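Worked example

This section walks through a single chain of length 105. The input is the sequence exactly as stored; nothing has been trimmed or padded.
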Amino acid sequence: MYDPPEALGLTDRSTPEERRRAAFDFAHQIGYIALATVAEDGATPTARAIEVHYLTTKPDLYIGVSKGKPLYAELVRHPYLTGVATRLTTGRLSISVRITSHVAP
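Given that input, the structure is written out below as tokens.
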């Protein structure tokens, strides 16, 4: 039976808040995240990489998007996104974190 090591210091007993904080800290350390959204037409998937930041002491990630960008229009119309942050660990091995969220202006 495969018994993988703990990832990001989490165990099966970690709380949802501990998991959220570990995922956000991981993405923040990398500095960017690959995002998937839905285009304004409501059907076409889109993807891009974008910088992520902490702006307060609260464990919330912030992305800066100007009103003139297609991403802004997509998120206004469909305020959900999924992001993936990946970091190589050893050789070709990597660790990835997926974050799915509702977006608030």
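What to look for: The first strand starts at residue 32 and ends at 38.
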